[in-house]
Amino acid sequence: MSRRLLVILALAAIGLAACSTKTAPPPSGTSTQTGATLAIQATAQLSFTPTSVTIHKGDIVKWNNSSGIAHNVTFDNGAAFSQALNDGTQISRTFTTTGTFNFHCAIHGPSMHGTIVVT
């Protein structure tokens, strides 16, 4: 084998080793540590983005609105929660119990909805 080919193979092996030690970033909408804060955006297209998040007990979810129109966040189940989310504002909630929490914008109806899974 030529010296040049050996150098190329050695560099490739080093590069592969470096890649194998990196961890992939968590999926969007997933917390990686307790006490994390995740953001959900209310949009002018009458949706929440992301529509589903998975978090840990103790995490905070923050809803932001810069859409130019008023929204709100109303939970379908669990503890009562209905908050105005006017343009240029944000609201947050700390999730202290596990479960699945479905929410929607009561102004724009159930088609503008989302889900928070707390593990």
CATH superfamily: Cupredoxins -  blue copper proteins
Give the name of the CATH architecture: Sandwich
Please state the CA-atom Rg, rounded to the nearest Å: 21 Å
Overall geometric form: globular
- Per DSSP E runs of 2 or more residues, the count of β-strands stands at 9
What would CATH call the class? Mainly Beta
Strand order of the largest sheet: 3-9-8-5-6
The helicity comes to 10-25%
Structural class: alpha+beta
How many domains comprise the coordinates? 1
Please report the number of helical segments.
Answer: 1
CATH topology: Immunoglobulin-like
Write down the secondary-structure element order: HEEEEEEEEE
Q: Uncertain regions: pLDDT < 50 for 5+ in a row?
A: 13-27
Mean pLDDT: 81
Q: How many strands, which pairing sense, and closed or not: the largest β-sheet?
A: 5 strands, mixed
Roughly how many Å apart are the termini? 55 Å
